[in-house]
Amino acid sequence: MSAATLLLSGGLDSTTLLAHAIREGFDVHAMTFRYGQRHAGEIAAARRVAAQYGVRDHVIVDIDLRTFGGSALTSDAPVPKDRPVAVGAPAEIPVTYVPARNTIFLSIALAWAEVLGARDIFIGVNALDYSGYPDCRPEYIAAFERMANLATRAGVEGTAPVRIRTPLIEMTKAQIIRLGLSLGVDYSITQSCYDPAPDGAACARCDACQLRLRGFADAGASDPVRYVHR
After folding, report:
1. Domain containing 186 — which CATH number?
2. Which of 30, 81, 170, 171 is such that its CA lies 20 to 30 A from the CA of 130?
């Protein structure tokens, strides 16, 4: 069984990704980040998911990106609500983009993978149903993989080249949900909302909630998480 590191946010995509990686026979070491995000309830969701799937390790890394700000997710700036969310990249990168987040996360996951002797790093980025984040594109992932193989011992020696695994990257949200349901994923334990209520209920109005709700509707399924309103 091959070891792999996997970025686990506790959301819909990363939970589906975890179920897929386990089905593919990987021995998963999951990594979650507490980075000062306002939707910190996703940490508890990630713990629930990791426990349910019995991953080999689940580490929670603390790194406070509020030090730099620059995002509605790491500041008091309002999270956009009720804006049109189209499939594919919008004209502008939204204020919920966290500068360099995936680069930071993948770099730390890469360091852990090197220690573990794991060549595979899983990340649940998606280039179709997403909010316009530049670090979710296939060309970004390809560039990071090239860099990783220049920056690690195994990559330079050619003994175990690093592979950034993105099996969800070309899937619609509905396709991801159908995949997850076929794998028995319990989506009630996940969290996607950028601005949940104090009791944890999802807002149903941010980009993440809108994409999730539309995905479930397109998949012909009902979203089991609690919403403030629909």
Report:
1. 3.40.50.620
2. 30
- Per the domain annotation, does 38 fall within a domain? yes
| Structural domain harbouring 115 | 3-218
Report CA 64 to chain centroid distance, whole Å: 18
Indicate yes or no: pTM above 0.85: yes
The alpha carbon dihedral of 33, 34, 40, 41 has a sign of positive
Residue 230 lies in a domain: no
Whether 226 maps to a domain, the answer reads: no
How far is Cα 68 from Cα 74, in angstroms, rounded to an integer? 9
pLDDT tens track of the chain, all 230 residues? 899 999 999 999 999 999 999 999 999 999 999 998 887 789 999 999 999 999 999 999 999 999 888 898 888 888 889 887 765 555 578 888 888 999 999 999 999 999 999 999 999 999 876 567 889 999 999 999 999 999 888 878 877 789 999 999 999 999 999 999 999 999 999 999 999 998 889 999 999 999 999 999 999 999 999 999 75
Total number of domains constituting the chain: 1
Question: What is the enclosing helix (H) or strand (E) of 163?
Answer: strand 163-165
